[in-house]
Amino acid sequence: MHFRVYYLINRSGERVSSRSAVEMTTKAICEQMLDRLQSEDDYLGILDADDNALQILPEPDQHRYYVEVPLDAAKASYGRYVNREELEALIHGLAPQFNERSIPGLTYRPW
User: Which residue, 49, 81, 94, 108, has most beta carbons within 10 Å?
Assistant: First the structure.
């Protein structure tokens, strides 16, 4: 399965905007991107074919990640905390089009 990704890796200054997102397989996302998320300032976004986003925000001190589906129009997101194993399973299990209802366990959080 292929998706487009955007990211910020703070320590190296690497950045790809959502407008310039690059195509990657779910395997490549897990193997090449997840280990690079080492700071709370880092993030990874995954876009489906309809430009729905799944954002991944690391919390290294807690050994977890916050995953969310942002809803800009509602100024809110649906999200939950996951560990590395859960994150990899979630990425590998993404449907070609996803939203807050297609990812189990997400809860509403206004900004």
Answer: 94
Of the candidates 20, 16, 48, the one whose C-alpha atom is nearest the C-alpha of residue 32 is 16
Q: Which amino acid is at 26?
A: T
What tokens were used for 76? Answer: 């809110």
Query: Which one-letter DSSP state was computed for residue 15?
Result: E
| CA gap 31, 68 in Å, rounded | 20
Dist CA 68 CA 109 (whole Å): 9
pLDDT tens digit string along 72-95? 888 999 999 999 999 999 999 999
Helix or strand or coil: residue 110? strand
Question: Residues, the chain, total?
Answer: 111
Q: Closest Cα partner for 3 from 57, 46, 50? A: 46
Q: Whole-structure pTM over 0.90, yes or no?
A: yes
